[in-house]
Specification:
Layout lengths: L44 H11 L50 H20 L6 H12 L3
Helix pairs in contact: 2-3
């Protein structure tokens, strides 16, 4: 026999009350989503879908990750943590352990360029129509030693 009339939901609450009377309406932590019956035209698929829903519970809140202690970072104006070490330590100049090599050698490009193109540029510089600025550039390349 069919039942009619209002049915009070147990979980979740229908509506939250105002202010101090407010409650969670999502069912609280660890609530389960109601299973949905999906009707398909193929025999046995609805039962298989319902079984899948029973076997796969809704994900809860992720567990909080443990806090990793970070080392104290020295501020810009704090006293030094290494009073015996010169400020130029690690740099390719000045006192200190100069273990760091320059990351970029500005002359390396020029050396490669000179090795590849100097002969051709000299031939062009000998032409009567070559501009004076180009001839000076070739002269600079010829004087560059490395």
């Amino acid at each position: 026999m069919a039942r009619g009339g209002y049915r009070k939901p147990n979980n979740p609450a229908p509506v939250s009350g105002p202010g101090a009377l407010s409650r969670r309406t999502d069912g609280g932590a660890g609530s389960k989503q109601a299973m949905k019956e999906i009707r398909t035209g193929k025999y046995g698929e609805s039962k298989a879908i319902m079984e899948q829903q029973q076997g796969a519970p809704m994900a809860g809140s992720p567990a909080p990750s443990p806090r990793v202690a970070t080392p104290k970072i020295t501020g810009l104006f704090d006293t030094t943590q290494r009073p015996e070490e010169p400020v130029t330590a690690g740099m390719p100049f000045g006192p200190g352990s100069n273990s760091m090599k320059p990351a970029f050698d500005p002359n390396a490009e020029l050396v490669d360029f000179k090795a590849k193109y100097l002969r051709s540029l000299q031939d062009v510089a000998l032409l009567p129509s070559a501009p004076q600025s180009f001839k000076r550039f070739v002269s600079y390349l010829e004087s560059f030693n490395q």
